[in-house]
What does this fold into?
Amino acid sequence: MLQLLQDEFADVTISKIRFLEAEGLVTPARTASGYRKFSAADVERLRYVLTVQRDQYLPLKVIKEHLGAIDRGLRPAAAGPPVAPSSLPQTPGQPVAEDFGASGTELRLTRTELLAAADVQPEFLRELETHGLVVANGNHYGGDAIVVAQVAAELAAYGIEPRHLRAFRTAADREVGLIEQVTGPRRTGQTEELAALTVRLHTALVRARLPQA
Amino acid sequence: MLQLLQDEFADVTISKIRFLEAEGLVTPARTASGYRKFSAADVERLRYVLTVQRDQYLPLKVIKEHLGAIDRGLRPAAAGPPVAPSSLPQTPGQPVAEDFGASGTELRLTRTELLAAADVQPEFLRELETHGLVVANGNHYGGDAIVVAQVAAELAAYGIEPRHLRAFRTAADREVGLIEQVTGPRRTGQTEELAALTVRLHTALVRARLPQA
DNA sequence: CCGGACCTCAACCGCTGGTCGAGGGTTGAG
DNA sequence: CTCAACCCTCGACCAGCGGTTGAGGTCCGG
It folds into this structure.
């Protein structure tokens, strides 16, 4: 169910989610037998929590207040940074940022599970497959296929169809090819590290080229 | 000496200030006998620290990085708040747009600032520019250029040089082209949302194609 | 009827952001 | 010269946050 968050936020765990529930940040429905059942809205809520926690360092207490405000229809108040102090001669300090943690156990989904998880029509999936965006490995799919299918579906709502996305596939293929070329076929650890770097590069390049808001 | 901070921030104490010094956030001068001597700049620096700590909940580690950035002549990168989750028990709609928080005020760096921020040699930057990975806008660069340069430098350590990265540039160009094609040249908001989607797609595709750990 | 995934609840943990106090030097008024 | 009032350092200690771990039990598909 929730490995889809895991592949957007490397360090989310079941216990973390349960903890967040205990803190009152999400309130998933329950089955008759007590199992948690997360709706799309719950997942989105968690995505929000994890994002602001990671990117804005907000304490959960504050995030909770914001969520409360949002639920009541308000927008969370965002405090702007104050004026900077005048500078001084100083020593260095390097920022670090990673985020490509391999999810421990790779998900294996049947076609049916994938369709359900991504909430797409079978024809749509077939289309994705004919364009090479999703590929089965034997008769199962990896967790990333969910993300691909979901995102492709959202893009389709904007009129961007799978066939328009072929370039993404070839770009990704080339990217991985490049990585494997330097690491050799099987240097674990390094591969992920390089992938994190190239993905970061890609993202920065896209942002840089976007028309300024 | 420093009760003047105390009447702006009720809970500042001597021990707190000493603690902040131990953490490297301020470095007051000392008298011959070892007493701290705070300059006006030190006080301002402390004011900044206390303010962002109180109002933006930033951890000291991050504040320290920001101060470092300020010292190097940059403005602190303020992560804008992401889009709120569409709160409500609802049908599958997932208009997600996260993680692409446009930095509220776009950074403008001179060439020198960029070199310092990314910690790269001038020749390396020139190389990036000849391959179109970093482009100046007039005589300044955007914040993404820092990321591009840093990442490219890290990749160079693996033997991947700027000229190997041209494909990334063209991929990014095409990606942005696609986005602009559907949003029209100037539909703000949507552009960022779509960019977030395509970047997510890209990431998922790369992961999916990575050899399994 | 078994194995694996899920549940709860309480105990535990590491890190952050400090506080406290012992032991000792400095300074200035008287 | 003395004394009170500060200042210093350094190590021990602490509370709260954000989870993790594990014991003990339930649920369920094959």
User: Anything to note?
Assistant: The two ends of chain B are 59 Å apart (CA to CA).
